[in-house]
Amino acid sequence: MSCDTDILIVGGGLNGPALALALADTGFDVIVIDAQPPGARGEEGFDGRAYALTLASQRLLTAIGVWDSVKDHAQPLSEVRVSDGKPGTGAGPFVVEFERGGIDEGPAGYILEDRFLSRALTDAIKAHPKVTLIGGETVVAQAVGPADVTISLASGRELSGRMVVGCDGRRSGTAARAGIRRTGHDYGQSGLVCALEHEKPHGGIAHQLFLPPGPLAILPLPGDMCSIVWTETTAEAARVHALDDAAYMEHLRPRFGDFLGEIKLAGKRFTYPLNLTLAEAYVSDRLALVGDAAHGVHPIAGQGLNAGLKDVGALAEVLTLARRRGEDFGRIDVLERYQRWRRFDVATMVAATETANTVFSNDNPLVRVGRGVGLGVINALPGLKRFLMREAAGLTGDLPRLMQGRQI
Amino acid sequence: MPMISADTTVDPSEVAKFEAMAAEWWDPAGKFKPLHMMNPVRLDYITSQIAAEFGRDLTGPRPFEGLRLLDIGCGGGLLSEPMARLGAEVVGADAAERNIPVAQIHAEQSGLEIDYRHTTAEALAEAGEQFDVVLNMEVVEHVSDPLAYLTACQQLLKPGGMMIASTINRNPKSFMVAIVGAERVMRWLPVGTHDWSKFITPAELEDLITRAGLRPVDAKGFVFNPVSWQWSISTRDLSVNYVTASLKPA
Known about the structure:
CATH class of chain B: Alpha Beta
Largest sheet of chain A: 9 strands, mixed
Family (chain A): Belongs to the UbiH/COQ6 family.
Shape of chain A: globular
Low-confidence stretches of chain B: 1-8
InterPro entries (chain A): FAD-bd, FAD/NAD-bd_sf, Ubi_Hdrlase_CS, UbiH/COQ6, UbiH/COQ6_monooxygenase
Shape of chain B: globular
Protein name (chain A): UbiH/UbiF/VisC/COQ6 family ubiquinone biosynthesis hydroxylase
Strand order of the largest sheet of chain B: 3-2-1-4-5-8-6-7
Number of domains of chain A: 1
Oligomer: heterodimer
Pfam family, one (chain A): FAD_binding_3
Organism (chain A): Maritimibacter fusiformis
CATH superfamily of chain A: FAD/NAD(P)-binding domain
Helix content of chain B: 25-40%
Distance between the termini of chain A: 29 Å
Number of domains of chain B: 1
Structural class of chain A: alpha+beta
Order of helices and strands of chain B: HHEHEHEHEHEHHEEE
Strand content of chain A: 25-35%
Largest sheet of chain B: 8 strands, mixed
CATH architecture of chain B: 3-Layer(aba) Sandwich
């Protein structure tokens, strides 16, 4: 009994190709099935999406060989300022400043636009001799056998592997076909995303401004540009998104403040609803879920892609070590090691994110005083701040080897 | 299928116990769950010892290509299959007849070629079979004459060959953990799986291995952590489960 490949990966976004590279580097044969047609990923032009990559994520991208091709487009973060603001008044008096000196490992992270990361990952899998990319195909069925799994594509083509990995996002078909149920809720909030040009240099400082409707994240891009994620209630976001550019900017300016001088729109505007969607299991027989397919979280802490890349590092490590022992790496008892590793970590992250969102998306004066004092306390205690800084950089917890800058 | 030779050291009452469990071998959540849970550390030890002794690179494909390996007490093939997947030419031997078809069916499903035989170490030695590696995992505590059994293992090795043997220590802690804990409290194993008086201390095993004509080269503990719910290898704690490597002089 022979298979077309060792591992079938469904999803050609970011986590899918990253996992393909991590696995192919340790000797696995991998097929990536991407619903997007060949050449559609990483188009020219800014599409508004940028990621705050933790240092741990940057190390993983280095280990899988894609960092070199994106590093010139990445903006190092010299500081992350978390502040409690009220519309029109700018930042509150208690501000947490995470300077570069807060940790020893260099910058706390990097801001990188989706188009550069997506392009680099796609180019890398196309160039890797052990990865086959099948574009413009969707999966319509999957069947698990005693030692393999077969997936059927919309074109009628069938592919078999020792296991399948769903990197197919919040509405993962891979999870649904395996009968894995999801839980979660709608936050009643939507994110408004756009890029801005500004007058004064940002100095590599990212801002997280906690406003009553929801947080405003300002992520510095190379040059005098930044990407913003502005969270509003869904009804308000729809209204703001429908405004013309001038009215949109009128609305944004008092929230944004004038600390970067004049601001103007650079490119298109986007909006998307924010929800939490968690798969009830991350694995089943010969199947694993990675990234948003396993845990789609609120972007408040910018942890979506970072959590996905941590899944990538953990799953690649579990599967590689299993194969080196001679184990049948698609078996449920092997895959459960990945689930045990990641599920607790994700549960902690979800709980922290929920708390932050509840505490900060609130205009109750008592809550405001409380969080102001909390931010002040964080600043006054260097040890705690250092821990939070390392936490924000993704350097705490049980890190996969690829995130420690090591090979598996 | 070869018959068990007349001078076997397998205790008939022990064989009957394992025959009753044979069909459950490959269910990770079934009766052999404790063995499945322990398998990664057993494999970590076995693969690293073989790789170090025979100069093999575990990061490459089929690192054990060219090695002939015997898995004594192969059961359903929990060790034989990984060894075959790593490229070794594997003979799996079990004294319980019913284990053989179970193991054969599973190897076929996994696309692996393994020579499973209903036989014993003594019978194979008598037939003049020779191996680079003999795996002797959790067997010695079930045989009636450990020295005769280990001598047969020695005879099965080529000069310079390696035997890896694991068993359970005999002390108050191992009684609590392996008999009271695993069999009676956790119900991981059927009551009567182990006879505590047959457990062997590391010093006794080292002495037996030496008398059988092998040179002990390593000993480590397998330790279960009830918090992380995982097994790990310990250089110091050989108080319950432990494993040894020994070589046949070249």
